[in-house]
Amino acid sequence: MAKSIESLIKQSIAIPTDPRRKELEEMEKQKAVIDAKAKVQVRTELYCGLGFLTVQTLGFMRLTFWELDWDVMEPICFFTTSFGFGLAYLFFMKTSTEPTFQGFFLHRFRVKQERLMKKQNFDMNRYKELCKVCYPSFEDGAKSETSSVFHYSYK
Prior knowledge:
Elements lengths: L1 H11 L6 H49 L2 H26 L5 H19 L4 H11 L10 H6 L5
Helix pairs in contact: 2-3, 2-4, 2-5
């Protein structure tokens, strides 16, 4: 019994000198660079969104308290807010992801990551195949630092 379990364990562990392991290490480095670039791009988008919301709020404050009054601005604020909720609902309908900041970040991250992978000719299927060979417990995720944070899949 012990020998059969030992043979199964040996079969599931890749040989350290296996040339596929070196290929996987190169792909992991390339994927880490892609993930870092995607994260920076998404954070840039989110900071631009924050800037837009700040300017909009300051503009509404100026219009409400100095230029116009609340009777004029109330319907404008209401419809602007309703439009924002409509966009969040549309996001949910298109992506089946909760319209939270994390959900938006993860969705945009995946989109940016896929574009960068395509642009840099990164073969995700080959990467998954190598991970399954070298990491027996691998389950359709990624072995880079971002996988533990994002838990995304490539289907």
